[in-house]
Amino acid sequence: MTIDPTLMSSLMMILVAFGAAFLAALWLACLVWTWRDIRSRTRDPMYISLAVLVVLVLNLPGVLIYLILRPALTLEDGYQRNLEEEALLASIEDQLLCPGCERRVHDDWQVCPNCHTVLRKECQHCKKLLELPWKVCPYCATPVPGMKIEIAVDEQVEPVESENPAE
Ligand SMILES: [Zn+2]
Ligand SMILES: [Zn+2]
User: Fold this and answer.
1) How many angstroms does the Cα of residue 131 sit away from the middle of ligand 1?
2) Count of other CB atoms within 10 angstroms of residue 67
3) How many domains would you assign to the chain?
4) Statement: residue 164 has pLDDT above 80
């Protein structure tokens, strides 16, 4: 059995054509992938065109080079990281500071251990910690001794006639 040489060569042609089509598709896919990937990592048009150019010229090895050199963080990652850093900063700023020495104190401390500034006082009745300006315990309604409670004085006594009696 002999194979017709023209059939053989046309088979080869088809194989080569398929191979070329496959390579072209691969190349295009690499380009599209790189284009998408770089755009999720930078908005700089120079970087974007550089990345696409590398893959355009070098094809698969270009993708390898791009993978090594691309920015590590996507824009979204960077955004998330910024948010986390901001939250961390905010939580640090939320920490209570001693008014005397500016060191960090806990909100259940009575006295600053560093400079002995009084931070809170104890309710005489229920022993809960009260803020210094409070005049009454919000937990048990016991007035804080030494602090005058200003009772709402809406209904004042009739104002004295200011007709100036010393005429
Ligand atoms: Zn202090
Ligand atoms: Zn109390």
Assistant:
1) 16
2) 10
3) 2
4) no
